[in-house]
Protein backbone atom coordinates (compact mmCIF):
# COMPACT_ATOMS: atom_id res chain seq x y z
CA UNK A 1 0.00 0.00 0.00
CA UNK A 2 1.36 3.43 -0.84
CA UNK A 3 1.59 6.18 1.81
CA UNK A 4 -1.59 8.14 2.31
CA UNK A 5 -1.90 11.91 2.05
CA UNK A 6 -2.60 13.28 5.53
CA UNK A 7 -5.64 15.10 4.16
CA UNK A 8 -7.45 11.74 4.26
CA UNK A 9 -7.21 11.74 8.05
CA UNK A 10 -10.69 12.42 9.44
CA UNK A 11 -11.01 15.58 11.52
CA UNK A 12 -7.50 16.60 10.42
CA UNK A 13 -8.10 20.12 11.71
CA UNK A 14 -8.15 18.74 15.30
CA UNK A 15 -4.58 17.42 15.08
CA UNK A 16 -1.45 19.52 15.53
CA UNK A 17 0.97 16.78 14.50
CA UNK A 18 0.83 13.73 12.29
CA UNK A 19 3.73 11.26 12.26
CA UNK A 20 3.89 8.19 10.03
CA UNK A 21 4.65 4.89 11.76
CA UNK A 22 6.70 2.62 9.59
CA UNK A 23 7.39 -0.12 12.11
CA UNK A 24 5.14 -3.04 12.85
CA UNK A 25 4.06 -6.30 11.34
CA UNK A 26 0.83 -5.24 9.68
CA UNK A 27 0.52 -3.85 6.20
CA UNK A 28 -1.80 -1.11 7.49
CA UNK A 29 -0.79 2.51 6.96
CA UNK A 30 -0.36 3.96 10.45
CA UNK A 31 0.05 7.44 11.90
CA UNK A 32 0.56 8.77 15.41
CA UNK A 33 -1.61 11.84 15.85
CA UNK A 34 -1.56 14.52 18.51
CA UNK A 35 -4.58 16.71 19.24
CA UNK A 36 -4.59 20.38 20.19
CA UNK A 37 -5.22 19.29 23.79
CA UNK A 38 -2.19 16.96 23.83
CA UNK A 39 -4.03 13.67 23.45
CA UNK A 40 -2.26 11.11 21.28
CA UNK A 41 -4.05 8.77 18.91
CA UNK A 42 -3.18 6.00 16.50
CA UNK A 43 -4.93 5.81 13.14
CA UNK A 44 -4.72 2.72 10.95
CA UNK A 45 -5.77 2.60 7.30
CA UNK A 46 -6.54 -0.67 5.50
CA UNK A 47 -7.86 -1.34 1.99
CA UNK A 48 -11.62 -0.95 1.71
CA UNK A 49 -11.84 -4.60 0.63
CA UNK A 50 -11.16 -5.51 4.29
CA UNK A 51 -14.10 -3.45 5.59
CA UNK A 52 -16.03 -6.34 7.20
CA UNK A 53 -12.93 -7.89 8.76
CA UNK A 54 -11.76 -4.55 10.18
CA UNK A 55 -15.25 -3.67 11.44
CA UNK A 56 -15.39 -7.01 13.28
CA UNK A 57 -11.92 -6.36 14.71
CA UNK A 58 -12.93 -2.88 15.88
CA UNK A 59 -16.14 -4.18 17.49
CA UNK A 60 -14.24 -7.00 19.24
CA UNK A 61 -11.72 -4.54 20.63
CA UNK A 62 -14.55 -2.27 21.82
CA UNK A 63 -16.12 -5.17 23.68
CA UNK A 64 -12.96 -5.98 25.65
CA UNK A 65 -12.18 -2.42 26.77
CA UNK A 66 -14.26 -3.11 29.89
CA UNK A 67 -11.51 -5.51 31.08
CA UNK A 68 -9.66 -2.37 32.11
CA UNK A 69 -6.06 -3.21 31.27
CA UNK A 70 -3.60 -0.92 29.47
CA UNK A 71 -4.45 -1.09 25.80
CA UNK A 72 -5.29 1.22 22.94
CA UNK A 73 -8.99 2.07 23.17
CA UNK A 74 -10.99 2.03 19.93
CA UNK A 75 -12.37 5.53 19.35
CA UNK A 76 -13.64 5.78 15.78
CA UNK A 77 -14.27 3.62 12.72
CA UNK A 78 -15.03 4.79 9.20
CA UNK A 79 -14.05 5.03 5.56
CA UNK A 80 -12.22 7.65 3.55
CA UNK A 81 -14.51 9.86 1.42
CA UNK A 82 -13.56 7.99 -1.75
CA UNK A 83 -14.11 4.55 -0.11
CA UNK A 84 -10.54 3.54 -0.90
CA UNK A 85 -9.62 2.87 2.73
CA UNK A 86 -11.24 1.89 5.99
CA UNK A 87 -9.75 3.50 9.09
CA UNK A 88 -9.72 2.90 12.83
CA UNK A 89 -8.70 5.52 15.40
CA UNK A 90 -7.38 4.36 18.78
CA UNK A 91 -6.09 6.03 21.91
CA UNK A 92 -2.30 5.94 22.03
CA UNK A 93 -0.56 3.85 24.67
CA UNK A 94 3.13 4.49 25.22
CA UNK A 95 5.16 1.35 25.07
CA UNK A 96 8.32 -0.21 23.82
CA UNK A 97 9.33 -1.35 20.39
CA UNK A 98 8.55 -5.06 20.28
CA UNK A 99 11.44 -5.50 17.88
CA UNK A 100 13.76 -4.99 20.86
CA UNK A 101 11.87 -7.29 23.21
CA UNK A 102 12.78 -10.84 22.11
CA UNK A 103 16.50 -10.37 22.77
CA UNK A 104 15.84 -8.85 26.21
CA UNK A 105 13.39 -11.65 27.08
CA UNK A 106 15.93 -14.26 26.00
CA UNK A 107 18.69 -12.59 28.04
CA UNK A 108 16.42 -12.40 31.08
CA UNK A 109 15.38 -16.03 30.67
CA UNK A 110 18.99 -17.18 30.37
CA UNK A 111 20.11 -15.20 33.41
CA UNK A 112 17.19 -16.61 35.43
CA UNK A 113 18.11 -20.17 34.45
CA UNK A 114 21.76 -19.54 35.33
CA UNK A 115 20.81 -18.08 38.73
CA UNK A 116 18.55 -21.06 39.44
CA UNK A 117 21.30 -23.54 38.57
CA UNK A 118 23.77 -21.73 40.80
CA UNK A 119 21.38 -21.66 43.74
CA UNK A 120 20.06 -25.25 43.36
CA UNK A 121 22.84 -27.51 41.98
CA UNK A 122 21.23 -30.53 43.66
CA UNK A 123 18.24 -30.22 41.28
CA UNK A 124 20.59 -30.52 38.33
CA UNK A 125 22.19 -33.64 39.83
CA UNK A 126 18.78 -35.26 40.50
CA UNK A 127 17.70 -34.43 36.99
CA UNK A 128 20.87 -35.96 35.53
CA UNK A 129 20.58 -39.11 37.65
CA UNK A 130 16.99 -39.65 36.57
CA UNK A 131 18.08 -39.71 32.93
CA UNK A 132 20.36 -42.73 33.43
Could you please describe the fold and organization of this structure?
This protein is an alpha+beta fold and 132 residues long. It folds into 2 domains: 6-91, Phosphorylase Kinase, domain 1 (2-Layer Sandwich); 98-131. The chain is 33% helix and 27% strand. Strand 4 and strand 5 (85-91) form a beta hairpin. The longest helix is centred in the C-terminal third of the chain and has 19 residues, at 101-119. The protein is globular, with a radius of gyration of 22 Å. 14% of the residues are buried. Mean pLDDT is 78; it is low at 112-118 and 123-132.
Provide the fold topology.
Blueprint (H helix, E strand, L loop, with lengths): L14 E7 L7 E7 L4 E8 L3 H14 L9 E6 L5 E7 L9 H19 L1 H11 L1
Antiparallel strand pairs: 1-2, 2-3, 3-5, 4-5
Number of discrete domains: 2
Helical residue percent band: 25-40%
Count the DSSP helices.
Answer: 3
Order of helices and strands: EEEHEEHH
CATH hierarchy, class of the largest domain: Alpha Beta
Shape: globular
Output the CATH homologous superfamily of the largest domain.
Phosphorylase Kinase, domain 1
Write a brief caption for the model:
This protein has helices spanning 51-64, 101-119, 121-131; strands at residues 15-21, 29-35, 40-47, 74-79, 85-91.
Amino acid sequence: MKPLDTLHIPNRENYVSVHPIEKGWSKDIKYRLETKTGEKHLIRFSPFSLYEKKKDEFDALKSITSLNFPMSRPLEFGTTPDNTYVYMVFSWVEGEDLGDRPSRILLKRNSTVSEEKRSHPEKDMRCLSSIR
